[in-house]
Amino acid sequence: MAAAPLLAIHDYRLVFDGFEGTAHVLDGIDLELGAAETLGVVGETGCGKSVLAKSVLRLLPSPPARVVAGSIRFEGVDILAANDRAMRAIRGPRVAMIFQDPATFLNPVFTIGQQLLDVIAAHEREKPKAERRARAAMRAHAVSLLQQVRLPDAEALMGRYPHQLSGGMRQRVLIAMALSGAPALLIADEPTTALDVTIQAQVLRLIADLVRDLGLAVMMISHDLGVVASTCRRVVVMYSGTIVEDAPIARIFAQARHPYTKGLLAAIPTLAGSAAKLSGIAGSIPNLIAPPPGCRFHPRCPLAVERCRAEKPALRDFGGGHRVACHRAEES
Ligand code: SF4
Questions:
Q1: 305, 315, 328: which to mutate for ligand 1, most atoms within 8 A of CB?
Q2: Banded model confidence at residue 139, pLDDT cuts 50, 70, 90
């Protein structure tokens, strides 16, 4: 019998209620992630990838967010029905998240050591009293975490303030915090977008090494297929709150079947190509308050036919872990 997935999301539908109407932000997400599996989630800004990641940790304020249908289960726990105590045992200890701009998530008036110790202490409070670490052991753990993310002179770093660190170092501190509870799943939401290219490569290498060494599952959110390709074995492509394609990363690059995925691939600049030849995807993302009927991509799709305007394409299995939501996927 196949092992139960670490994370299972089924027919998940989420809306945001606002003054102008109800935005249909996620429309029937079906996704499973196994233990130690590395998954990239890519798509344009506004496609719902960050909302999906936050849904797993129930971090969205309600209102405006409202779950309309579906389920999210992590390690068998029903996330949508879990009480606050159950969520505290999942958020951080079992599922950790790192965000886009590390400066925003570190308090400028406390040292790195104080902030890291606060996170470790919060995890300890979730354990039975007899198993909790003493203060000295928590401090030693904090130093070892900073060493694990390859920050030099970890002891001295404990006494420094965030403004004394570069952007790359701050992101490593946040990764250390994320690892402090020994999670089974790391969600990384555009973790390198705020960093320059050389530091970005170092942080991606670090995440890839940690994932391999610690046996973590990863959900890497990005608008950049290149970022996902360097850290993940599988990729899910999202468009306007739906999954349009799901495949092993090599297959996406070699045999993408969805017109939107193909458009994303064609928009990646190459050293050999000239800027004049770089293609984009015509049009813009749809208004989620009144999304297009049928396939949400049809107003921008060069292959759209009448059926696309009337009928939402199901996410169909093409074998080898490849799923595509397109009426014309066989023609690709
Ligand atoms: Fe294009 Fe139709 Fe496929 Fe949607 S279902 S991607 S509109 S061909």
A1: 328
A2: very high
